[in-house]
Amino acid sequence: xxxxxxxxxxxxxxxxEPPADHISRKGITLAPGIEDRIPMWVADMGFATCPAxxxxxxxxxxxxxxxxxxxREEYFEAIxxxxxxxxxxxxxxxxxxxxxxxxxxLSSALRALLPPGxxxxxxxxxxxxxxxxxxDLGIEAVHSALKRDAAxxxxxxxxxxxxxxxxxxxxxxxxxxPHNPTGRVWERAELEALMDLCRRYDLTVLSDEIWADLxxxxxxxxxxxxxxxxxxxxxxxxCAPTKTFNLAxxxxxxxxxxxxxxxxxxxxxxxxTHYNHQNILSMYALLGAYSAEGEAWxxxxxxxxxxxxxxxxEWVRDRWQGVSAAMPQGTYMFYLDCQDWLxxxxxxxxxxxxxxxxxxxxxxxxxxxxxxNSIRMNLAxxxxxxxxxxxxxxxxxxx
Length: 399
Description:
By secondary structure, this protein is α/β, with parallel strands linked by helices.
């Protein structure tokens, strides 16, 4: 069911009830005639999760004991089979390691692999989770800006990246594939050029591929580690069913590390913290998600996301003069460049955000992603609800 609007108020959802430090709409009253809020800020889908996930968890809940356990063999097989079916690359069981979350895994890997005083290269716009982890660890981030080409597609700048690597003696890259927040799905030639650059300067790559399943029709997700044998040996890949199946509250990610020496470095630091203890229900959630029924559900979801992405992109292109966006290729996030609109209307970004909040649309300040005058929007909601949100925002942006 991708059409029912689900009321999540009172049921532990920050998407529906954001805390004050997550979204700055405190004190803003709704405009006359607006009686509800449409959550479009945090990366949390407005759809019910896959029935196979609920069924798998419910079946395990029927047993009254939840003691200590080890991951079932089926857990590893489900991950192996999923990657083989979806991406044509079957990981070895030894390469799979449980992680409570991608950001915790990123933190462990940074502490394991980055030399003292080392800097990290990443692209901007940058996922705010990356920047927060780096700030918390006291690691300096060096940003290479993605640039939109003549067709509006976000592209890496290899020349700038190489100059930054040389200037800052970079040895570690945080890579987002597909890219959040721009929704870019990287092409093979781009990945080949990137990994050749990493080979020439001996960079380790931390590749966040949590969005890998959410690639829209017409595009293909290519795992970073699949580019070459050398790429496989220098890449730590982070994956999870949580974005795909809306399971963030269940907690449960995993890493794929092909090289034994690299694997040992990363795991040794994670083991020292003693934080990576899997929840038994998250294991069964993954088993349900990575089933044949889960894959069929995902196929239907991608059609809905494609419809919503096209609707939002065309609406912005045709109706919101001064606002621009690239058509998403993956994820369910939508990144708006509002610079020309703000200039034409003598308005600040914060004022524009407040006007949207007043219309009952909870959209997200895009500037913390390190791109000025931008807004991020979540398109994973029933299409009728998305249309209503766009209609409300048009009262602001077309006026």
